Amino acid sequence: MSRQKIHPKHVAPPEYLCRLPPGYGVVKICVSGAADTGYCGLDAFEKAKEVGREIATHGGIITTGATTGFPLYAAMGAKDESGFSIGFSPAATEREHVETYKLPLEYMDVIVYTGFGYVGRDLLLIRSSDAVIIGCGRIGTLNEFAVAFEDRRPMGILEGSWETDELLKRFYDSSHRPNDRLIFDSDPKAMVERLIERVKKDREKLNVVYNNHDGWSSTGKNAEVIL
User: Fold this and answer.
1) I want to staple 195 with a disulfide (CB 3.0 to 4.6 A). Which of 31, 64, 66, 131 is the partner?
2) pLDDT tens across 173-205, in order?
């Protein structure tokens, strides 16, 4: 009976883990993108893998929606460098994940079965990540962008042959909501480095008491933290 060949790095222990200063943990970077990448362009898969490789080699943990397409190839790239990968599934169980949602199990070290469907999964995915990288995407990717934007997560918009980056640039320009945590770049290495630096700065400022914007008072005056 033939057995599937597995790349040795895909099952090797993580070679790098980027620990921030004591008490800050490891950087978790979400990769968001289309599960169906047929319209994304020929370079989408390689770009996704490059993003994953950079997250791994910079010591980060990659988080995804435990889905196919762009996020799956990013997770594959991370595993190519013996990185650590966490997937957040819309399903409540592994069987539902595979049989109902038709989603993969490969290239993920841990899968969190949220049971909240795609919309609830997106919220947990973003809030469980320190930063977000947006690749070629569709409406689900736009939802994750909106959650990350409102949550003020450091976010990198990957520029490529697709139109998602241009669309999000137009959204941002017309939103009239300044956001200094938003990065547009075509270079995955530079993007990952900049996001990690931003996470470090944010952790130094917010780690002790989380600045939860959902908990502001009705006026929003002098309400910077939740005690």
Assistant:
1) 131
2) 998 888 889 999 999 999 999 999 999 888 877
- CATH numbers and ranges of domains, the chain: 8-215 (3.40.50.450)
Structure tokens at 20: 């921030």
Q: Nearest Cα to 165, choosing from 131, 133, 198, 194?
A: 133
Structure-block tokens of residue 145: 């962008």
- CA neighbor of 20 nearest in space, from 196, 216, 205, 218: 196
**Residue type present at position 12:** A
Considering the entire predicted model, what is its pTM?
A: 0.82
C-beta of residue 100 within 8 angstroms of C-beta of residue 93: no
Amino acid at the residue 125 = L
Are the CB atoms for 124 and 20 separated by under 8 Å? no
132: nearest Cα among 150, 119, 110: 150
Q: Which two tokens stand for residue 12?
A: 């090797």
Rg (CA), the chain: 17
Q: How far apart are the C-alpha atoms of 95 and 206, rounded to whole Å? A: 38
Question: Which amino acid type is present at position 34?
Answer: A
